[in-house]
Design brief:
Chain A: InterPro entries: ACP-like_sf, PP-bd_ACP. The structure holds 2 protein chains of 2 kinds. Chain A is built from 4 helices and no strands. Chain A is mainly alpha-helical. Chain A has one domain (3-86): ACP-like (Non-ribosomal Peptide Synthetase Peptidyl Carrier Protein, Chain A). Chain B is of the alpha/beta class. Chain B has 2 domains: 4-344, ANL, N-terminal domain (Rossmann fold), CATH 3.40.50.12780; 353-452, 2-Layer Sandwich (GMP Synthetase, Chain A, domain 3). In chain B, strands 3-2-12-11-13-14-15-16-17 form a 9-stranded mixed beta sheet, sandwiched between helices. In chain B, α1 crosses α2. The chains are: A mainly alpha, B alpha/beta. The A-B interface holds A 18-22, 35-36, 39, 41-43, 45-47, 49-50, 53, 59-62, 67-68 and B 101-102, 212-216, 219, 235-236, 239, 242-245, 353, 386-387, 389, 402-403, 406, 410, 415-416, 418, 420-422, 452, 454.
């Protein structure tokens, strides 16, 4: 599955996991998830990591600066999932 | 000349103080790094310590302590906070080890590389552990205060040494020093006390990184010897246990910054075979007491700590490592032998992820937003919460949507207090005292949870 196809699924996962007051389709692929934009914080990222590991079968790791990059946007997170998913 | 205490105590010179990806770092090498960095620091008394790596943080703290400077440790790194620090501490400089995540109103100096090679160190032939006057202020920690203005809490060297020693005794680490792996930053009081001070004065050593994901924790634990203690929070604990990641042996878990529920503590103990202990304290008072969560609600004061109550019902903390007699914001019942239990928060204090504010202040901010006719924040009780440690808010704002209101709130309050969910309602009933009663908010919250069909998110 391509990143493009995965994005709506990941957006729905984020909205549901965090009770966000937005519709999945309202999350723009390149809007920042962190800070401004959706305003996620580190506790949110831990929760997303958990649902991602359950759904896609792999564990996120923060190798230095990697973490900021993975969570930069819906597109970045979906790309990361697309390349590491095992289910 | 005031009395002095050493920068590091309870350790032999060649004991390991810190574990890093490049290998262990001994007490003498730490002291050499501290001396060298003290010579490099810019002039001026105040240094904002932004080092993310725990070892580099500790070297900068030490360099401040031995050179008469002060390590400033803000509770958040927002541009507004830095602007306020610049106003209060004229000429203060920031030193860090990474590119700041956002543009700041001051230049961040990059820490030079640390670590003399052993040969060079021996040529210098200086293995002495430096000493610091006990009444010297070496760090100022900040709370965001209920109004968002950073409030300073100065920490003197003698009290910090006593704090590290008291915690080691309270947790039995003085008899059996552990390697500490912390998921919390070194700058905030809990991480400062339970990772850095416990190593400098409680005989322990620490891992220099800050694991975030369960997989990171597994790697960090594998990099340090047993016995190991993980210094963490309920949020991280939940994530580690739910992830199913298999962890190397943990010998002790430590949790603080938010209440830990018994169910989670029992899960952690069952899954790992290690006891879960909690710390009670605050930035103002420093750490005060410990308990094993599953042994019951009572807290045991740390060695040298006493609580006293005045006629108005306010509880005050005082003792060996407490800077001064400090009023506590919790309602406390004292029991025999100095033990105590928490009876709830005073007024309407909210403490999330180590940050405090009051519901009254949040409601005041919410109702001040253009177009908001009425609104109330609500902290769900632990047994009904859909998400651990998040506030909810119910708002009457005809013609406004949630996103606009959240964006307006984000401009005004710390993001940890942003409501999840923010629910728009037609009206809020107020009682004779023009208060929105908690029962009503609980009903609204239950209705929302039912409508969203979310089972127990835990």
């Amino acid at each position: 599955m391509s990143t493009q196809q995965l994005m709506p699924e990941v957006a729905a996962l984020i909205v549901e996991a965090l009770n966000l007051p937005v519709k999945p389709e309202d999350i723009q692929p390149d809007d920042p998830l962190y800070g401004d934009g959706l305003g996620l914080d580190s506790i949110d990222m831990l929760e997303i990591a958990l649902v991602v590991s359950k759904r896609y079968g792999f564990q996120l790791k923060s190798d230095d600066e990697n973490n900021q990059r993975i969570f930069a946007s819906l597109r970045a997170l979906s790309e990361h999932i697309a390349s590491y998913r095992v289910q | 000349m005031s009395r002095t205490l050493p920068l590091v105590s309870a350790r032999a010179p060649h004991d390991t103080l810190a574990w890093t990806v490049r290998g262990p770092i001994s007490v003498v090498r730490y002291c050499a790094d501290v001396r060298r960095l003290a010579g490099w620091l810019p002039p001026g008394r105040f240094i904002i310590n932004l080092c993310e790596d725990r070892y580099r943080y500790a070297v900068l703290l030490g360099a401040c302590a031995v050179s008469g400077r002060v390590s400033l440790q803000p509770s958040s790194q927002s541009p507004q906070v830095f602007a306020q620090l610049l106003q209060t501490y004229e000429g203060c400089r920031a030193v860090g080890d990474a590119q700041p995540a956002q543009v700041l109103p001051l230049q961040v100096l990059r820490l030079p590389p640390l670590g003399l090679d052993e040969a060079e160190r021996h040529r210098r032939d200086d293995d002495a552990i430096p000493a610091v006057p006990i009444d010297r202020t070496v760090a100022i920690l900040f709370t965001s205060g209920s109004t968002g203005q950073p409030t300073p809490h100065a920490k003197t060297w003698g009290k910090l040494v006593a704090s590290g020693q008291a915690e080691a005794r309270a947790l039995g680490l003085d008899a059996r020093p552990h390697a500490l792996v912390g998921t919390v930053p070194a700058q905030h009081s809990y991480g400062f006390e339970s990772t850095v001070l416990l190593a400098l004065h409680g005989g322990c050593s620490f891992w220099s990184g800050r694991p975030f994901y369960p997989q990171d924790l597994a790697q960090a634990l594998a990099a340090v010897p047993r016995p190991r203690m993980v210094v963490t929070t309920p949020f991280h604990l939940r994530s580690f246990i739910s992830s199913g990641v298999s962890l190397p042996t943990v010998d002790l878990w430590l949790s603080a910054t938010a209440p830990l529920d018994d169910v989670l503590a029992a899960q952690v103990e069952a899954a790992t075979g290690a006891p879960v202990h909690e710390i009670y304290g605050s930035t103002e008072s420093s750490q005060l007491a410990t308990r094993r969560t599953l042994d019951g609600a009572a807290w045991h004061p740390m060695p040298g700590v006493r609580l006293e109550q005045d006629e108005g019902g306010t509880t005050w903390a005082l003792g060996d490592h407490v800077e001064r007699r400090v009023p506590l914001s919790d309602i406390i019942a004292l029991h025999e032998g100095g033990r105590f239990t928490l009876q709830g928060r005073q007024a309407d204090m909210v403490n999330l992820a180590g940050k405090r504010t009051s519901l009254a202040y949040l409601n005041h901010v919410l109702c001040g937003i253009d177009g908001v006719r009425d609104g109330a924040f609500f902290l769900p009780s632990e047994d009904t919460a859909q998400r651990v440690g998040r506030l909810a808010a119910f708002v009457v704002a005809p013609g406004h949507d949630q996103a606009t209101l959240l964006a307006a709130l984000r401009q005004r309050i710390d993001p940890i207090f942003l409501p999840r969910p923010l629910v728009l309602v037609d009206a809020l009933a107020r009682n004779d005292a023009s208060k929105v009663v908690r029962e009503q908010l609980q009903r609204l919250y239950d209705d929302w949870a039912a409508a969203h069909g979310r089972g127990d998110a835990r």
